């Protein structure tokens, strides 16, 4: 029940909204922005002038548009000069990228790591090396406006502390603070859960653009979800929402790493799938090999996919009943399971999901693949700038830069 | 990504925020409103003058405050002149109330009905009679600013159509439209799900005031939830979110009325509890009798409560893992089950719920009792007025009324 903003706050808000449009859509004409924002032309002109002066966008006359009359100026994000650092700490690889305003990946480094065998200190060291390495290519005058990391674990909202990272083998870790300390010259590193940030990424730039009620399911060893409800990421009180892998679905099921039994991830995680097929190995490669074998007629692999597909449908039905989403996206190795066992998933969903909640439901695969957590981390890192562009630009002396 | 509002929209928004404060808190001094809204004294004075002129509040000097200096004017909602109609269609009773601005129940009618034996037409007739009956006491010049009904069923968000009301025995019903047509002289009747509206009520005026991540569980024959996430009611894409009673928790469980099997409500609904104790009867009275018997040492009743309490804990743990709420409220007959089996609920929650999500969790009983859906319906009915007070007041010619 806060009161509405003052005129100055309105202007700042509008600057943020305009910059967000240009950031998400890329180069956009003033005429389009006028329509999108529902503001008049002179207001749009004043806002783009402010953003240009702040060093955040440039404006230029487009090439011949083929139409009569003076063409509308095109507003472009200053992608080379305004960037964030985005990191992704997954079970088996660590990635760092320099991402320009507009979502342009300017530079990136990635290294495969042994699942569960690296410490938070190892991750901090590797990321610091990546950043140092990428620094050489940063043009003079460019400014880092934010930094964020996607982590496979429970992340406390208020301080980025990682409470539980089963799959990376971490306990209670002040990862955000450690990374911030190591990257001395850069902004605070905000930390987010990988499924949450994947949901944010697909909602901003992927398969869920325009859908405001979305569940992004992410599976590898464990299973988590990022939930977009009414256009906003569901965080919960502490930031731990979306631990759907620990819905108990089978009272007679196997023990789970969390201490409970019969959690959804014990039925649909990679180990469950491989075990059901009597196979060894682990990770995405092992899942792909299994799916491949099923495609070539391997009966055990086919049966395992049917079984896991059925359990996948059970949990999806639960989530559909609870959230009434418009779309469910299957990410990580659940993408392969879903594609190979879509009939089982659908059939179980039809049996267990309320008809009302299924009417407008779409089951989809994500568009951003394994980059989703990294893209989401970049979006998280940009959020401060997009909230109040001028404030951030002034603090970093962007306009004054050469 | 809508642009921020114009100055005029800011004023309207501020009027709504101020009126909402007075509506929720009751009579409030200008000094308090200045603090609450973070606006200066002259702005608050202008806003209260506008609301007074519109016939929505009155201002008066308080009685001797015992303090030196001129006392701050007290702003009171015009409860007698500005009211809504709120209805609740529950499994075994139908209620109508006239509720004044400020949440004051000015008049109410209620009738017990036979569970599952009345049609939507019966409900419309009964409610219409109630309204006609209450009309006699409406003072000249008073205005109805909204109407809403809480219904035990799935309610489609965009038109108030009831898709499924298992417990009231309804199929696909255009209940909102029928009620609106029957109550000719009154505003459109908005329809909401009873658990959702109970959550709204407890969040506005009950046990969840100040908590922005709340799950209100409501149980009788079936089980539903209203979820408040980041301060807002979770609706889902069509309005069907919160059907937690149809989470499958027991693959070997009983068939559910929804067509699935092992749904949570088949383990914790009233029939499951009574059956587990080898008892007949139905409804709240039968549950209370069972709890009473357990208190007097009835072994079968005690065992049934332990069993159902355990399943209650299973589902609550699932919801805690999925939503990371600050509070879970147990409403309807789940209130009695929770109070009688809190140890089982806690114990199961500790086993199945992630430790991180339990840290700040409070398990609570609601404060508004069986009136919660009615109170929530009143809040829903007031929402249009609180969104844009002057517009609504002008349309109804409130100020011009005698």
How would you describe what is shown here?
Two copies of one chain form a homodimer. Chain A is an alpha/beta fold. Helix content of chain A is 43%, strand content 19%. Chain A is built from 15 helices and 15 strands. Chain A has helices at 7-25, 30-37, 41-53, 120-135, 175-182, 194-205, 264-268, 270-276, 283-295, 299-323, 333-340, 342-352, 355-358, 372-387, 389-395; strands spanning 28-29, 57-60, 74-77, 82-89, 93-100, 104-112, 143-151, 154-155, 162-164, 189-193, 214-219, 223-229, 232-233, 327-332, 362-364. In chain A, the strands form four sheets. In chain A, strands 6-5-4-7-10 form a five-stranded mixed β-sheet, sandwiched between helices. A five-stranded mixed β-sheet of chain A has the order 13-12-11-14-15, sandwiched between helices. The first copy, chain A, has a three-stranded antiparallel β-sheet with strand order 1-3-2. In chain A, a hairpin with a 3-residue loop joins β5 and β6 (104-112). In chain A, α9 (283-295) crosses α10. The radius of gyration of chain A is 23 Å and the shape is globular. The model of chain A has no long low-confidence stretch (mean pLDDT 92). Chains A and B meet through α1 and α10 of A and α1 and α10 of B.
């Amino acid at each position: 029940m806060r009161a509405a903003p003052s005129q100055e706050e309105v202007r700042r808000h509008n600057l943020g909204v305009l910059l967000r449009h240009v950031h998400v859509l890329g180069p956009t004409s003033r005429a389009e922005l006028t329509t999108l924002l529902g503001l008049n032309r002179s207001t749009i002109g004043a806002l783009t002038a402010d953003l240009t002066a702040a060093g955040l966008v440039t404006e230029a006359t487009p090439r011949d548009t083929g139409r009569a009359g003076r063409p509308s100026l095109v507003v472009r994000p200053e992608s080379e000069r305004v960037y964030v650092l985005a990191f992704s700490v997954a079970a088996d690889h660590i990635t760092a990228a320099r991402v320009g305003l507009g979502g342009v990946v300017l530079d990136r480094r990635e290294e495969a790591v042994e699942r569960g065998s690296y410490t938070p200190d190892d991750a901090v060291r590797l990321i610091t090396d990546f950043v140092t390495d990428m620094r050489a290519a940063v043009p003079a005058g460019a400014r880092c406006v934010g930094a964020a990391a996607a982590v496979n674990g429970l992340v406390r909202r208020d301080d980025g502390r990682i409470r539980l990272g089963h799959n990376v083998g971490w306990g209670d870790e002040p990862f955000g603070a450690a990374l911030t300390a190591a990257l001395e010259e850069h902004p605070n590193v905000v930390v987010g859960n990988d499924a949450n940030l994947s949901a944010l990424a697909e909602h901003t730039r992927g398969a869920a653009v325009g859908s405001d009620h979305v569940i992004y399911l992410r599976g590898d060893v464990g299973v988590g979800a990022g939930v977009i409800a009414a256009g906003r990421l569901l965080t919960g009180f502490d930031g731990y929402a979306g631990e759907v892998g620990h819905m108990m679905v089978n009272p007679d099921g196997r023990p789970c790493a969390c201490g409970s039994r019969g959690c959804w991830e014990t039925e649909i995680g990679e180990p469950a799938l491989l075990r059901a097929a009597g196979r060894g190995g682990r990770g995405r490669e092992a899942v792909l090999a299994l799916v491949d074998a099923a495609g070539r007629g391997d009966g055990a692999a086919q049966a395992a996919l049917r079984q896991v597909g059925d359990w996948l449908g059970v949990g999806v039905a639960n989530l559909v009943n609870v959230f009434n989403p418009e779309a469910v996206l299957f990410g990580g190795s659940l993408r392969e399971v879903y594609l190979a066992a879509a009939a089982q998933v659908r059939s179980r969903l039809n049996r267990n999901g309320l008809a009302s909640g299924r009417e407008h439901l779409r089951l989809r695969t994500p568009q951003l693949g394994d980059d989703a957590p990294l893209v989401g981390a970049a979006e998280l890192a940009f959020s401060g700038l997009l909230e109040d562009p001028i404030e951030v630009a002034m603090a970093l002396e962007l306009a004054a830069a050469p």
